[in-house]
């Protein structure tokens, strides 16, 4: 039985969710004509939308736009096809000025129509609005942008972008943000999707763009911006993402522009999309960007603490002896591991465990085995096999090192560290079942009898 989508989040939660996705590199933008209008401060001809564009193109190529009676009930792709047919019925010249043979006029008419459409979509962003959007996007660094716009406004406000036509493969995001023009773009007029024939080809099943679109929306948190809730492009894209099942889909958020008095709370639109009403499209990007700055500041603080732990003996002493401070630092290690990789986390942990291990040498060394157990248990929350196999493997290595000195039962035994043994058996049940199972599986695979004995694996 189908389940209802969860209740909409608060506006603050939606903005924070977009910022967190941005900070982790998993935010994609799906950009409509409303963004072009905002970036050009309303001067772009997209203000007239489809009909205005087709009327302008018709006038420029010298054919008549259908009257209201003829156009009634016809979609704009069909009207574009009728305009192309009308042009093909006239005498025309090729690029060299030579007459076009009647049998070639249809192809030539398509070329002229798309070239004229491209010319009518050459916009330059407004200096003020463009700068504001560029600053926000520089902070956000979207993983990708998909657009049904023909223009290059998004490319103008991104620091580095890769312009892609409908059938171009979309590479992984690196320095340049891929901007995938689903309906073609002005620098390749032949790629423009505008007539009925173009749309039939565009929605043909099993094409790259159909499959890729669904996976991109499933794998990323997507912000639709510059579209209305009922826009057919939005509905089609969401429908593609549901091919893989809604449970595989990341959140979809649509920023619905309203002229004034946007609703304070998000609500559910078709297909469960979360709708956030805004009266300023660029302002929304700036709002998300400000949240991203705060998140990144915390991330930098986290890696700074990890580096201090690695480099400072005083910081290591506090980490070893102060459980509250250690818990905070372990959380920072988790952030660092996810966002910056394991190298610096492993360097810091190596410094910590080496410092404790060196203290176990000599007649006064037994109490320090307790520190080894205590720190190891706290750090195992870092080493979830699914989250960080590298950190888990490191911690298992340290467990193997200490297991020889832990008795299989919480009782005294000559040659073992009694206080460390009691602490181990007191804390072992509190380790997550996932980590406990993986430790035992690891021990069995390695034939590690000491670890199996203290973990109840034998």
Going by helix content, strand content and strand pairing, the class is: alpha/beta
Q: Are there runs of 5+ residues with pLDDT below 50, and where? A: none
What is the average of the pLDDT values?
88
- Between the first and last Cα atoms, what is the distance in angstroms? 44 Å
Number of individual domains: 3
Strand order of the largest sheet: 3-4-2-1-5-6-8-7
Largest sheet: 8 strands, mixed
Strand content range: 5-15%
Number of helical stretches of at least 4 residues: 20
Helix-residue proportion: 40-55%
Q: What is the multimeric organization of the chains shown? A: single chain
Rg over CA atoms: 30 Å
How does the overall form come out from the CA principal axes? elongated
Named CATH architecture of the largest domain: 3-Layer(aba) Sandwich
Q: Tell me the CATH topology of the largest domain.
A: Rossmann fold
């Amino acid at each position: 039985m189908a389940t209802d989508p969860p209740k909409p989040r608060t506006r603050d939660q939606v903005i924070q969710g977009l910022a967190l996705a941005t900070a982790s590199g998993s935010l994609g933008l799906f950009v409509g004509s409303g963004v072009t209008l905002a970036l050009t401060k309303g001067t772009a001809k997209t203000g007239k939308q489809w009909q205005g564009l087709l009327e302008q193109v018709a006038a420029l190529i010298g054919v008549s736009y259908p009257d209201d009676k003829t156009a009634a009930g016809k979609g704009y792709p069909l009207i574009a096809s009728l305009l192309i047919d009308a042009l093909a019925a006239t005498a025309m010249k090729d690029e060299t000025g030579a007459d076009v043979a009647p049998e070639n006029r249809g192809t030539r008419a398509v070329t002229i129509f798309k070239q004229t459409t491209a010319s009518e979509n050459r916009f330059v962003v407004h200096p003020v609005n463009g700068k504001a959007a560029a600053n926000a996007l520089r902070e956000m660094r979207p993983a990708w942008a998909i657009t049904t716009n023909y223009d290059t406004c998004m490319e103008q406000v991104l620091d580095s972008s890769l312009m892609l036509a409908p059938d171009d493969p979309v590479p992984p995001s690196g320095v340049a943000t891929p901007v995938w023009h689903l309906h073609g773009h002005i620098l390749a007029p032949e790629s423009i999707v505008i007539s009925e024939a173009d749309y039939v080809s565009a929605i043909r099943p099993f094409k790259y763009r159909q499959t890729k679109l669904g996976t991109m929306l499933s794998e990323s948190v997507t912000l639709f911006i510059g579209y209305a809730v009922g826009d057919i492009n939005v509905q089609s894209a969401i429908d593609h993402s549901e091919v893989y099942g809604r449970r595989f889909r990341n959140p979809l958020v649509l920023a619905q522009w309203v002229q004034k008095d946007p609703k304070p709370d998000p609500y559910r639109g078709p297909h469960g999309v979360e709708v956030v009403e805004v009266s300023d499209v660029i302002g929304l990007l700036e709002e998300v960007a400000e949240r991203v700055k705060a998140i990144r500041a915390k991330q930098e603080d986290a890696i700074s603490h990890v580096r201090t732990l690695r480099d400072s003996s005083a910081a290591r002493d506090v980490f070893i002896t102060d459980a509250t401070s250690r818990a905070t630092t372990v959380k920072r290690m988790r952030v660092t591991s996810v966002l910056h990789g394991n190298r610096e986390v492993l360097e810091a942990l190596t410094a910590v465990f080496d410092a404790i291990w060196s203290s176990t040498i000599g007649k006064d060394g037994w109490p320090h085995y307790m520190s080894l157990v205590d720190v190891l248990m706290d750090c195992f929350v870092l080493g979830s096999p699914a989250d960080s196999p590298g950190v888990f493997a490191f911690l298992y290595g340290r467990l193997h090192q200490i297991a020889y000195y832990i008795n299989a039962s919480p009782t005294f035994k000559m040659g073992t560290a009694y206080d460390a043994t009691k602490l181990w058996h007191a804390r072992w049940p509190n380790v997550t079942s996932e980590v406990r199972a993986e430790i035992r599986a690891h021990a069995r695979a390695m034939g590690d009898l000491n670890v199996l004995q203290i973990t109840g694996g034998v």
